[in-house]
Every structure is written in structure tokens, then in C-alpha cells.
UniProtKB/TrEMBL annotation:
GO terms for biological process: mismatch repair. The keyword Nucleotide-binding applies. It comes from Natrarchaeobius chitinivorans. Gene3D superfamilies: P-loop containing nucleotide triphosphate hydrolases (3.40.50.300). It holds the Pfam family MutS_V. Keywords: ATP-binding, DNA-binding, Nucleotide-binding. This is DNA mismatch repair protein. The keyword Nucleotide-binding applies. One of its GO terms (molecular function) is ATP-dependent DNA damage sensor activity. Residues 397-573 form the DNA mismatch repair proteins mutS family domain.
């Protein structure tokens, strides 16, 4: 395959990758989702990640039909990356994409949930052991040797279920022999490290000592003469004794190296040392070759075990990272619904962005679109699994118009549904007590963008309408469409979008303040509402974020005006806000403030 056939790889990128990695290694890095190799080759990490998402995502990125959908997807990955146990696991999380086959979604869910259960069952000391093993793996750049050592450490920890099952199946004896061989060889370049072989170490020490002595030969000769050596015989014996005491050479090696035709002491010492250096260098090379050959044979015998260890350690790191993410946010397995009727339904769903950002509790939401089974027993209310309050059951309409108070959580509900569908499509647990999802072909998520610019309106319509016309299953999550054009036209266009969504059998939630202007809606659509309930003693808006179905929500401006009146900093400012209070109903404002004080 040509490198240019991968999305995002043009001629300049190809040349850079080939120059740094070579064609085959570059292709392997792309196919395996290796962000680090590509970034080390000079590609910006963000660009490398985008290339790999397209290369390994099997078309799943096409599900994200709008820039806001892609932004929500990246936000989820960022939250998951925070729980990664290695840098490579973090990189692999960053290139996860929505999957296109239900079987693949189920398989990944099986792996992640098995990892979650295994991690939950571990004691705190065992968890610490596992994380420390992965920390060492990370520090050593996730080499083959590091992977084998990590596998041994995990075996020592006794973890053998879930993501660790493949590691538990490895042969410990082969792992230990491979670890010894990998530790002895210098990155597979044929060089044997110090400590791997006693005889090789002895020869190397001897060679080093002889080289040092040769570098200071003249000083050595002067030292021997200053010790009272006078004739040739005494000099020869003193030199021999010095060699035997200060180097690891043998008597035979010394005598074999001594020249028989030396003209003087300098010639004799220099000739002996040169001979010893030559002999020892040859001996070191021969011994190193023998040791390296034996080590490489050991690695060849253990190559399958090493490959399995690398794969198992990396796979466990990925699934363990995703399991820690799922546990941190109390995520559960979604149910995938197939058939002619699409559905998205959640019980006790929480917005991950809020959970991650806020210290206070986040209100869980029950919501549904399509032919759901939230209350299969026919009851009119559903109770959360944790014994929470019962919530009215929504109808089976495929499209909803969501209304209600400003700051009432309408946008948050859209984001929550988007997060549930995205995580489910990636084969990951979702932040809900229960969820049923039909995988969609297009996810259209449009956040509120306040602008009356004609170009914004056109670009928005170009992004959200074509997915409805593609013929695939589409989920529309559109927030305050009226913010990008004047209210009259917005109501007409929004009514058209709702009608088009119904006609195309799409699922959708459209947030708006123009519900009254959309009547009559198609019978397949309903109106839901979120209600503000007053002010708390701190004059903060109290909102029940759980939507009420088939009910128009109200923006309750009297609550906002009440707060402004109470917080006015001087008399003139208060007079101005009291004028607004008369406009919205002074009695309502006063009752709101009284209720807030009474609840204190």
C-alpha cells in the first residue's frame, strides 16, 4: 500500500516519514495506531492522531457529522485519557473512533467490563503493584524487555482475570529466560552488556587494564627502574609481576606476548602490551560472539512468548485504562437495539463534563426517543435502579422539542445524550444506570452559536441537513437554532427541520424557546419542558433538570428579575429592576423572594 493512500498523508508527509522511518515501518506505525512513532518522526501529535483515527477507524469518524459532534467526541477521549496507565495506552485511547459494526462494539464492551470487574476485585495493595509495574514499563519506553518484565511483575501480583488472562497464560520460565537474554543484549545490536557473562567481563577488564598500562608505558618503565631493577632479567620479572597483579591476564598470556627480539626496555614493554591488547581484543570478540549467539538462540526460542507478552501487556493497559475511566464515572453497559425502529433511551444518565468539573452532585436524567421499553410492565413511571424518585415515562415519539428556563439544563441534556450515543458507538460503558441505543450512521450535534450572520445560517444548514438526506439512521441534537437567524424565519426553518426529521425516520431533540410558534407539530413529535422552581437562599436559580414530557417549559423571567431586585447595589439600580418587576408581575417577584427567605 502507498503511504499517500492513507487519509492526511500527502507528498511532504510521505517524504518525512520515509526519511525518518522507512516506508515499511511508517506503514506499520499507521496500521497499529502508533502515535508516538509518528510524532517522533516529526509529525505534530495532533496531526498524527487525526491520521491514525482515519486509518484505524474503519469509517467510524464519518458518524460525526458536525464539528460540535467531533468536539464532544474529543472531550470524551480527553476524560478517558486521564485514567490511562501508560503513555501508549493514552495514545491508543486518543485514536479510538466510533465503530461501524455492532459485534465490534459488543466485543470491546466485553473486554472493558471484564477489566472493570477484575480491577474492582483487586485489593488496594494489588492495584498499587499493577500500577507500579506499568509505571516502570512507561519509564522504559515500553520496550520488549520492559514488556516482558512487566508481564513477570503482573504474574507475581497474581492477577489472572479480565485483561490479565492473556498474561496469566504465558509460560513463566520462557519469560524469565527471555528477560535475562533481553537484559544481556544491548537493544538487539549484538553487543553483550556488562554482567551477562563472567568470563566476558574478566576479559574486558583485562583488556581495559592493559590499554591503560599501554597509555602510560613510559611512566611504568621509570617506576620499575626506580624500584632498583638493574639487569634485563630483573626488569622482565618485575614487569611480569606488575602485569599479573594489575590486570586479569594469565602468566601464559603474558609470556606468549613478550617479544624475543626487543632492542631495549621501551621496545620490550611496548611490544608486550601491544601483543596482549591484540590477543585480548580477539578473545573478547570471540567470547562476546559466543555469548551473543547463545542469547539470541534463547530469544529465538522465546520469540512467540515475547510477542505475546508485548501484545498482552499493551492490550491489558488499554482495557485497564478504559475500565478505570468507566469505574470513575460509574458507567454501565448499554443495550444495543436493532430493528426497523431506532431508539435512544436512558435512565439515570449523567453528564460526564459536569461530573468531572463539579464537586456537587449532578442530577441524573431519564429520557427517551423512539420505541423504548423504559417501563416494559406498562406502568406510567420508571424508578431508578438506585431507588431514586420515580419519573414519568415519555412517549415513543422519535422527535422532541425541548423547552424551558434559561440555564435549565437543556443544552446539558443534549450533551448527555450525545455522550451516551458516542460512548456506546465506541464500544464503551455509558454514564447511566440503564441505556438502550440504536447505533446511528450520522450524529448531528449542533451547539448554540449566537450570530445572525447569513453565512452562519447557510453553513449550519449545510452541516445538519445533508445527514438527514443520506438514507442512514440519524440522531439530531440541535440547540437553539433560532440563535442564528431572526425569530420568525427561525420558527419556520425549525418546523421544517422537525418535519424533515420525522419524514426521514430520524431521532432528534431540538432545543428552542419558540415552541408555541411551531404548532402544529407532526404527530411523531412531542414537546418536553424543563422548569425552574424558584430561588434558593443564596438567590441561585432552582431547576428541576428532569424534563416533563408533553409539557411546554417556561423561561420564568420573574425568578431572574427577583434576583436582580434583591442584589441591587444602590437605590437607582433597584428602582430600575423594580420597574421590570412590575412588568413581569410584582406580586410574583415578592412571593419568589419570600419563598427564598423562608427556605433559608
Amino acid at each position: 500500500m502507498r503511504l499517500e493512500e492513507y487519509w492526511g498523508v500527502g507528498p511532504k508527509t510521505r517524504e518525512a516519514l520515509v526519511e525518518e522511518l522507512g516506508r515499511e515501518r511508517a506503514i506499520r506505525a499507521i496500521e497499529s495506531g502508533d502515535v508516538r512513532t509518528l510524532s517522533d518522526a516529526g509529525l505534530p501529535r495532533g496531526r498524527a492522531t487525526r491520521i491514525l483515527r482515519r486509518a484505524t477507524g474503519d469509517g467510524g469518524m464519518e458518524t460525526l457529522a458536525t464539528s460540535d459532534a467531533r468536539a464532544a467526541y474529543k472531550e470524551l477521549l480527553d476524560l478517558a485519557v486521564e485514567h490511562a496507565v501508560t503513555r501508549r495506552a493514552a495514545d491508543r485511547i486518543r485514536v479510538l473512533t466510533p465503530l461501524t459494526e455492532r459485534e465490534a462494539m459488543e466485543d470491546r464492551l466485553d473486554d472493558v467490563l471484564a477489566a472493570r470487574d477484575a480491577w474492582s476485585d483487586l485489593s488496594e495493595p494489588d492495584r498499587t503493584t499493577v500500577l507500579e509495574a506499568y509505571d516502570r514499563y512507561d519509564e522504559r519506553d515500553e520496550s520488549e524487555h520492559a514488556a516482558v518484565e512487566t508481564a513477570i511483575a503482573l504474574l507475581d501480583a497474581g492477577v489472572d482475570t479480565g485483561p490479565f488472562a492473556a498474561i496469566a497464560d504465558l509460560e513463566r520460565d520462557r519469560l524469565e529466560r527471555a528477560a535475562t537474554a533481553l537484559a544481556a543484549l544491548d537493544d538487539g545490536r549484538g553487543r553483550v552488556r556488562e554482567g551477562a557473562d563472567d568470563e566476558l567481563d574478566r576479559l574486558r577488564d583485562a583488556l581495559g587494564a592493559v590499554e591503560d598500562m599501554d597509555a602510560n608505558a613510559l611512566e611504568l618503565i621509570e617506576e620499575l627502574r626506580s624500584d632498583g631493577v638493574r639487569d634485563v632479567g630483573q626488569f622482565r620479572e618485575a614487569f611480569e609481576d606488575r602485569l599479573l597483579s594489575e590486570t586479569a591476564v594469565t602468566v601464559d598470556q603474558v609470556r606468549d606476548a613478550m617479544p624475543t627480539d626487543a632492542a631495549d626496555a621501551t621496545d620490550f614493554v611496548g611490544g608486550t602490551l601491544r601483543g596482549l591488547r591484540s590477543d585480548l581484543t580477539a578473545a573478547v570478540d570471540e567470547r562476546e560472539e559466543t555469548v551473543a549467539r547463545d542469547l539470541e538462540e534463547t530469544l529465538e526460542e522465546s520469540s512467540d512468548t515475547v510477542d505475546r507478552a508485548v501484545e498482552a501487556v499493551d492490550a491489558a493497559a488499554l482495557h485497564l485504562s478504559l475500565a478505570r475511566f468507566a469505574l470513575s464515572y460509574d458507567c454501565t453497559r448499554p443495550t444495543f437495539v436493532e430493528g426497523d425502529s431506532a431508539v435512544v433511551s436512558v435512565v439515570g444518565a449523567r453528564n460526564l463534563t459536569l461530573v468531572a468539573r463539579e464537586s456537587e452532585s449532578v442530577q441524573a436524567i431519564t429520557y427517551a426517543l423512539g420505541d423504548h421499553e423504559l417501563a416494559a410492565d406498562g406502568s406510567s413511571e420508571v424508578e431508578a435502579d438506585d431507588g431514586g424518585l420515580e419519573v414519568e415515562i415519555p412517549g415513543d415519539e422519535r422527535v422532541a422539542v425541548l423547552t424551558g428556563a434559561n440555564s435549565g439544563g437543556k443544552t446539558t441534556l443534549l450533551e448527555t445524550l450525545c455522550q451516551v450515543v458516542l460512548l456506546a458507538s465506541m464500544g464503551l460503558p455509558v454514564p447511566a444506570e440503564r441505556a438502550a441505543v440504536t447505533p446511528v450512521d450520522s450524529l448531528v450535534f449542533h451547539r448554540r452559536h449566537a450570530s445572525f450572520n447569513a453565512g452562519v445560517l447557510e453553513s449550519t444548514l449545510r452541516s445538519i441537513v445533508p445527514p438527514l438526506s443520506s438514507g442512514g439512521r440519524t440522531l439530531m441534537l440541535v440547540d437553539e437554532f433560532e440563535a442564528i437567524t431572526e425569530p420568525g424565519s427561525a420558527a419556520d426553518l425549525l418546523h421544517g427541520l422537525v418535519t424533515l426529521s420525522v419524514d426521514r425516520d430520524a431521532l432528534g431533540v431540538f432545543v428552542t424557546h419558540l415552541a408555541d410558534d411551531l404548532e402544529p407539530l407532526p404527530p411523531e413529535a412531542r414537546v418536553d419542558g424543563i422548569f425552574a422552581e424558584g430561588l434558593n437562599p443564596d438567590l441561585e436559580l432552582l431547576v428541576d433538570y428532569q424534563p416533563r414530557f408533553d409539557t411546554v417549559g417556561r423561561s420564568t423571567p420573574e425568578f431572574i428579575v427577583s434576583r436582580l431586585v434583591a442584589n441591587a447595589t444602590d437605590r437607582s439600580e433597584r428602582v430600575g429592576f423594580e420597574t421590570l418587576a412590575e412588568a413581569v408581575g410584582n406580586d410574583v417577584v415578592q412571593r419568589t423572594l419570600a419563598d427564598a427567605r423562608w427556605s433559608e
